[in-house]
Amino acid sequence: MGMVLLLATGCEKKKGENQPENSVITAADRVEKGRYLIMTSGCNDCHTDGFMQDSGKPESNWLTGSALGWQGPWGTTYPPNLRLTVQTLSEQQWLDMLKTRKGMPPMPWPSVNAFNEEDARALYAYIRSLGPKGEHSPLALAPGVEPQTPYLSMMPQNLPLAVSAQ
Ligand code: HEC
After folding, report:
1. Contact 35, 25 (CB under 8 A)
2. Atom 12 (ligand 1): residue with closest C-alpha?
3. 123 CB near ligand 1 (under 6 Å)
4. Number of C-beta neighbours around residue 141 at 10 A
5. CA dist list (Å): 138 to 76, 79, 107
6. Of 3, 11, 58, 144, which has the maximum CB count within 10 A?
């Protein structure tokens, strides 16, 4: 509604970097831009319970985390409640986390590490604007620990022998 988005991508790319520093998304303000990035980057698919089943509604529940575990060789992880996360971090701490953190699957850390600083600021502004809501998600479990919550198994199946023997 009244939001203006413009994507301009520069041709030059710094060697060895995934981050397109010259890409600029302009929006009416940081909050609108953050909302756009959350919506288009798929963050809600994991960080909002029932998002895929409910066709994305309601926005008031966005990013409140999930107690549905994702289990794989790394153990079981739960998408945290980002509405609570941003309450505990300064903007600078948020920027540092998005840029440098190498965490656990299935969180797409390489994608999030590639947000440029202005996009990361917009995400912070938008998530803060939603306000705190909900509970903390369960803590991650080590491999071999049986979850007490529902979970999805992401164990690789039927791998070629050469790969599974590694
Ligand atoms: C495929 C599922 C999935 C998607 C998609 C996803 N996340 Fe995550 N996210 C997770 C899981 C699981 C964790 C916990 C693992 C970890 O902390 O390394 C996590 C952790 C995080 C954390 C750390 C929060 C804290 O309190 O420690 C942040 C920040 C985050 N995600 C932001 C995002 C953003 C922004 C997007 C969209 C660009 C996104 N995530 C998309 C699953 C996902």
Report:
1. no
2. 79
3. yes
4. 19
5. 10, 9, 15
6. 3
CATH code of the region 28-142: 1.10.760
Residue 75: which H helix or E strand, with range?
strand 75-77
Tokens of 48: 């909002």
Residue-level pLDDT, tens digit, the chain, 166 residues: 344 454 444 444 444 455 555 667 777 799 999 999 999 999 999 999 989 888 777 999 999 999 999 999 999 999 999 999 999 999 999 999 999 999 999 999 999 999 999 999 999 999 999 999 999 999 999 999 999 999 999 999 998 976 554 4
Q: In angstroms, rounded to a whole number, what is the distance separating the alpha carbons of residues 80 and 13?
A: 33
Distance 108 CA to ligand 1 centre (A): 7
The residue type found at 83 is R
